[in-house]
Amino acid sequence: MKTSVVSAVVSGVVSGAFALSLGAGAAFASDICSVPQAEWQPKEALQQKLEGDGWKIKKIKVDDGCYEVYGTDAAGKRMEAYYDPKSFAVVKSKSES
After folding, report:
1. Does domain 31-97 have CATH number 3.30.457.10?
2. What is the pLDDT of residues 6-25, one digit of tens each?
3. In the beta sheet, which residues pair with residue 69?
4. Residue 21 in 3-state DSSP?
5. Is the dihedral of CA 48, 83, 68, 75 positive or negative?
6. d(CA 20, CA 24)
7. Where are the domains of the chain?
């Protein structure tokens, strides 16, 4: 009887830990930006800011709760960048050579 109780407790602990890890994975997979949409600045304002910085914008879309921008920066590099929709801070970027 003791063995089955111990097995049940261990099984419950392992199941609980697994469920917690799944929950953490789901939280980790959430949006990169978590600004409420009511606080977003218009994407046209971001485009105007970037063009003022010398960018040529190809496309701006919403992805992972951020503005995702495709374009060419002032140095002529093709860029893909994610911007916080409230502050326009760069959240993530990469250039393509």
Report:
1. no
2. 444 434 443 444 343 333 33
3. 60, 81
4. helix
5. positive
6. 6
7. 1-30, 31-97
